[in-house]
Amino acid sequence: MLNRKHLPTLIGVTFLLALTLSACGPAATATPEPTATRPVRPTFTPTVISTDTPTPTDTPLPTDTPTPQPTDTPTPETPMAVVIGDEESNLRAGPGTNYDTVGQVARGTELEITAKNAAGDWYEVCCVDGQQAWIVARLVEVTGDANLVQVAANIPAPPTDTPVPTAAPTRPPQPTSPPAPTEPPPTPAPVYQFIKRSIEPRPNSNPIVTVYGGLYNSSLDLSHPVTGFNMVVQAPSGEQKQVEFGPVFLRGDPLQAGEFLYNAKIEFPLADGNYRAWVADSSGNQVSEAWDMGVSGETRIFLVRWQQQ
Asked: Quick one: which H or E segment has residue 7?
């Protein structure tokens, strides 16, 4: 039970408390502190940087188009004639054997072909002793383009035979006395079917004697040697050998400077002295002039040729 002794104190404390509370008024409401906000950072706006205006480039000037230069047209090779006949071939004033002989050329000679005849079997060549002449086509080998050879515009007319004037008959003188006996006329030299054309001795160290024979027709056509006859060679001892002339010409020492043609060949064991060679028919009759060949030292090869008359 409350003690009456303490009651005044309690009332005083209560009074003071009430006074205090009235002085303070109603209790204040706590103001909330603002929430700190994160400042907004400004957005970066890129500055547009102007790009450099490209410097105009120079317009290339038109270049000169090279004008093609005309190429030289190759000049056709001038046709040339190389003599392949015998050691000496005839040149004539016109395309035929009835024209006069104007010179000779050695085998291997090269001549310029300037024209041909219509048949194409004769060539006009330049030059021999400063003048043009004609040679039969079969005696030459053509180098260059033979189609370039034109037919000659001015071919000399063939010569005509000059008639031999006949002498007016004369009255023989009357003998005043019987004529003295006269010597019988000499025996005429035999006329052979083949005449000697050429001979060429050559050295050789082999212990044999070799005779190469060539038998030519009258026109010297190398593609048609004369056949049906024999070459006969007689040694110093009197021994004779014979062989038939062949149907084609063979080449001796081919592709050498001394190359030659033949269609008969006879050999003997080496013996010095005089050898004779001639042409005989199938009956053994001599039908040509004879060649004499002297063998001595290293002269042991002979190239002998005959031509049909």
From this structure: helix 7-24
Q: What pLDDT sits at residue 22?
A: 58
**Cα dihedral across residues 196, 259, 216, 120: positive or negative:** negative
Contact (CB, 8 A) for 288 and 192? yes
Residues 262, 200: Cα–Cα separation, whole Å: 12
The contacts of residue 302 (CB under 8 Å, 6+ apart) are: 199, 200, 201, 202, 210, 211, 212, 275, 277, 291, 293
SS3 state at 143: strand
Strands (E), the chain: 80-83, 88-92, 101-106, 110-116, 122-128, 131-136, 140-143, 194-203, 208-216, 230-234, 240-244, 250-252, 260-262, 264-269, 273-280, 291-295, 299-308
Q: Dihedrals φ, ψ of 21, to 5°?
A: -70, -35
Query: Could you list the mean pLDDT of each consecutive 10-residue stretch along the chain, which spans 309 residues?
Result: 60 65 52 56 57 60 66 74 88 94 92 93 90 93 90 88 68 74 78 94 96 95 93 97 96 92 97 97 96 96 96
Domains of the chain: 80-148 (2.30.30.40), 194-308 (2.60.40)
Count of C-beta atoms within a 10 Å radius of residue 290 = 16
Which residues are 91's β-sheet partners? 103
- For residues 302 and 132, what is the distance between their CA atoms, to the nearest angstrom? 34
233's tokens: 């060679």
Give the pLDDT confidence of 208-231 residue by residue, as tens digits.
Answer: 999 999 999 999 999 999 999 999
Give the span between the Cα atoms of 300 and 1, in whole angstroms. Answer: 193
- The span from the CA of 70 to the CA of 51, in Å, is 55
Nearest to 217 by CA among 97, 133, 114: 97
CB atoms within 10 A of CB 215: 27
The pLDDT score that the predictor gives to residue 27 is 47
